[in-house]
Amino acid sequence: MSDTVQNPANDQGNPPALPLSVNLQYTKDLSFEVPAGAAIFATLRSAPQISVNIDVQANRLEEAQPVFEVALAIRAEATESPETEGGAAGRTVFIAELTYAAIVTLTDAPAELIEPILLVEVPRLIFPYVRSIISDVTRDGGFPPIVLQPIDFVALWQAKRAQQFPETAGNA
């Protein structure tokens, strides 16, 4: 009897490895503002309303190389709750903006997978770091931390594609 160990990666039932290498990650831009200054702490009566905007961009760094920068941009803005139901929002409490990027290399990726890897998979991989930074910066700014909920990057990518390539109305 021989003592051989089967490598599960060689089994035909396993999917192939993702043709992606994350070379490095970094904070490209970070900003936290409290426009009203210390006055907001004295006058804030209730939890602010928070809106979050998200964008993903991918750019090839060198034309002849499969090396890309993928940037996940988050803008969280908190405003005072309206005085009355349906009323106008009050002053801006704070604005947190973060652009977090990764430099990645795609090795022999099929052309149809490049866009989903760059705009779905890479943001999914770096999102936990973005979530932590936004939480820390809002807490360190004197407010309860913003804990970003998981993001469906597939739906975000599909919505972005629909904006770039709107379907034409009409009958075929």
Automatic annotation (TrEMBL):
GO terms for biological process: protein folding; protein tetramerization; protein transport. Keywords: Chaperone, Cytoplasm, Protein transport, Translocation, Transport. It comes from the Bacteria. GO terms for cellular component: cytoplasm. One of its GO terms (molecular function) is unfolded protein binding. Pfam families: SecB. The keyword Electron transport does not apply. It is found in: Cytoplasm. One of the proteins required for the normal export of preproteins out of the cell cytoplasm. It is a molecular chaperone that binds to a subset of precursor proteins, maintaining them in a translocation-competent state. It also specifically binds to its receptor SecA. Belongs to the SecB family. NCBIfam families: PRK05751.1-3. Homotetramer, a dimer of dimers. One homotetramer interacts with 1 SecA dimer. This is Protein-export protein SecB. It comes from Asaia bogorensis NBRC 16594. The gene is secB.
